[in-house]
Amino acid sequence: MNQAATAHPAAPIVAVEKLTIAQPHGRVLLHEADFQLAAGEVVILAGPSGSGKSTLVNLLSGAISSADEGWRISGHVRYAGTRVDLARERITLGGVVFQNFALFDELTVGQNLSIAGDHNEAVGTALVTAIDGLLKDVDRSAPVNACSGGQRQRVAIARTLLGNHPVLFLDEPNSGLDVSASKRLAALIKSLSRDVGVPVVIIAHHYRHLIDVADRVLMLDPRRHALVELPANARRVERELEAIEAVAVPFDEMRAEPLAPEKATATIAVSAGPMRASAAWRLSWTLRFLAGYLWELCFSPSALLFVGLGSVIVGFVTTWFIFQYLPFRDLLMPIIHSDALAGLAFSELRVLAPLTTGVLIATRNTALIGADIGHKVYSDQIKSMRNLNIPHDVYLTGTVLVASAVASVVLVIMSECLTTWVAMATWSYIFPDESTYMWRDQYFQRMWPPGELIMDGTGWIAAKAIPSIVGAAGIALYFGYRPKSTVVDINQSIAQALIWGLSFVLIWQSALTLIEFKYVSARLETTF
Amino acid sequence: MRRGTPVTYLFAVCILAFAGLLGVWGFRGSPFLESADARLFVRPDWTAGIAAPSTYPAYNLSADGTAVPVGRAILLDDNRVEMRLFPDLKSVSFDGARVVFLETDVKALWSLVPRASKDDIARVGERLVSVLRDRFVAMIGQPAFTEDYRKPLQRIVEDAYIQMWRDPKMQLIKRTVRDMFNQNDGERLAAALLPIALPKLRSAVFEMMLPSWQQMHDLVVDGKMDTRPLEQAAAEIMIDPEVQRLMVRHLFDIAEDERAWRVGALMADAFLDALTADPRLQPLVDKMLRDPRFSKELRTLETELSAMSMEVFSRIVERSNGRPDTLAVRVIRYILLNRRRLVALVVPDGSPAALELTRYEPLVEIRS
């Protein structure tokens, strides 16, 4: 944490120089803007809707950079003797307390704090004391969903403070609060800023109840593409806003001037030191997330029963209909019985069991992954993870893919076991006087001859099941990670993940099965 | 990402354990049954060349000849064969039974045919001979045959026969045939035929010996003897139904001798080679088959042969329950595919099947 916390508010510790931001569609939000932030001061970032307040915070908190598609950014940030070129580096200058708090739902209050602490440098005792003060009435072992709105906000602030950033950004902190709650929040922010010595930047539309604790106001002026410093005076700010809105220029008319900076062509680096944007993964957290996804995607009873039901249907239906509805059954049965069983084994164990498992698990897991990741994106949890240097690509993407691979192996083995047994039981029901060992002998005569260590075609089964299920999970991750602004976007991403994930499973398995047939048919023929 | 509770964790473990148990049951057999009854046998020499390890189905032949799968034979190495019986079969045991290996050829197929079916096939064979004879006689009795075909055919067949005996392979055949007919089978046939033939021959000889001046004159002056009574008797013997039955049966007995098949095949091969090499044959046969004067006989022959071949096939494949036999079908398939496969049979001593399979040497058990 910034040890210059006790510096005088007037002494700037962070300086942003010649900052220019152009959105992907070409609109310039800021042009060569300069501003400084001093330790312990509270600044309100104001401006009309769409003027770029959130974009500025996203840029300085690492959520966007010039590496992201379409964004054109230039300028520098100075902090603690370090100068960062924003055109070429991603920084996490500020920790963000998001409007919806972006707490990690699956973790408790304590875990929300410790994951932030584990991925950032240790904080000083003053900050620890401040955090303890913030959370004195919060049960740290409770799930975050069990906390009240106010408690969740304080947990979010505490977690952001543990990120140990030079600046604290609060995004619409008083949204939805009544007047007295807003005033209590303002007092809390002021005391926090004073106690830990961190500059606090508040983005607020409803700044009236916060302005009393602010040291100054930065107004984003879309007319001049500039940040204008104003005194912390509500009437002055209102007048300025009215003036801006009175001469509002349509965005498409502003596009031509000023010019956006050139797109950086070099690889975007991540800053080191206090403004770092790199994320180091921790084994303990990797295992914790992996265990969670393994449970959810593979071992939970719903997954097991889902696949089990499919396997029972495959084993029963194929065996029952082959032997019960065979034309000229009495005549043909002695002739084809043995080969029918061998053929059933092939179709059930090498084609239908992996296909059914793939389809069922892809259906279930793409929906779950799409919903889970989509919700995390929608509720800013992904942004929050980036902001707190928590590597979501390892903890979410990586563990989801690994868990999906494990699920494909475990659930296909389970499906093979159940399909085999149900096929045997069904056959035994149809032929009650026959030996089940005879069934086994003839069912596995080509798939698993005596003396062979593993079943023939295990490689094909793995090649069909693992990539298809992992691929469907990857597709769900892709749609899950796409930007979402409404709940409808989450639903659409789930639907798209389902459609594309299932299509992928069907296409992959069908194509591979056709290749498999072509590859093995000649070899199987010789065994007849 | 949701977490489970101890109850859901336990439930998941139970589901997995249950699925695993069913998997073991499905893949490897009931955990509640003892392991299979397995015995080791000496591998027969004639299976040399078949790669080991390799496995083959084992069957038990029921009283009506129906084959029932009972286990698996495994060629472990060059010296040992392991036989495993399915553990849930109560009625089949190695004790009081012999184990034989069959190669899936025509001989094995014939051995699997029950005695009653073989008798039926013999009767069909008798009928076939009769039908062929009747049709043949009907055809060659027509003036058209005498006028246009007798002499050319006779020349072709005679030439082919002469050509056949010039084939070097026939020297081997001569020795083999001599050995076969020197054995008891020939004597048995003679013993069976004599009671039928002797009375006819005796009366013919007696008739030949009747005193007649003309006969005495012919014999003394011209050195001639009237052999017509003997020829007549020979013809009567040949058309006697009992003689035909015995001959057909004897042919089947010969057919069970492996040498007979080889000799027959070699002779037929050599004769057919010689016959088909004759450029006169094909145009002559084509002309005869298209000759409208024989069309009625040929149509009748075709219909009867078709019915008889169906009956023979049914007797070979079907068993007394009216259904095709699994093993017979399997053997036919391997014959048609020209694939060398083995099947093992567990045959209870004294069973009808054991009698049909006497020519196969039982495997010798290796006792530890």
Chain-wise SSE layout:
The complex is a heterodimer of chains A (528) and B (368).
Chain A: E1 12-22, E2 28-38, E3 42-46, H1 53-60, E4 72-79, E5 82-85, E6 89-90, E7 94-97, H2 109-118, H3 125-134, H4 149-162, E8 167-171, H5 179-196, E9 200-203, E10 216-221, E11 226-231, H6 234-246, H7 251-254, E12 269-270, H8 283-299, H9 301-324, H10 329-378, H11 381-387, H12 392-430, H13 436-443, H14 458-481, H15 487-525
Parallel strand pairs in A: 3-9, 3-10, 6-12, 7-8, 8-9
Antiparallel strand pairs in A: 1-2, 1-4, 4-5, 10-11
Chain B: H1 6-28, E1 37-42, E2 54-61, E3 67-75, E4 80-85, E5 97-103, H2 106-112, H3 115-140, H4 143-148, H5 150-165, H6 169-181, H7 184-209, H8 213-222, H9 228-239, H10 241-256, H11 258-277, H12 281-289, H13 295-317, H14 326-337, E6 342-348, H15 352-356
Parallel strand pairs in B: 2-6
Antiparallel strand pairs in B: 1-4, 2-3, 3-4, 5-6
Helix pairs in contact in B: 2-14, 3-10, 3-13, 5-11, 6-11, 7-9, 7-10
Protein described:
The complex is a heterodimer of chains A (528) and B (368). Chain A folds into 2 domains: 3-93 and 165-275, P-loop containing nucleotide triphosphate hydrolases (Rossmann fold), CATH 3.40.50.300; 283-525, no CATH class. Helix content of chain A is 54%, strand content 13%. Chain A contains 15 helices and 12 strands. Chain B has 368 residues and is of the alpha+beta class. In chain B, 61% of the residues lie in helices and 12% in strands. Chain B contains 15 helices and 6 strands. In chain B, helix 3 crosses helix 10, helix 6 runs antiparallel to helix 11 and helix 7 runs antiparallel to helix 10 (241-256). The longest helix of chain B is centred in the middle third of the chain and has 26 residues, at 115-140. The interface between A and B is large, with 43 and 40 residues.
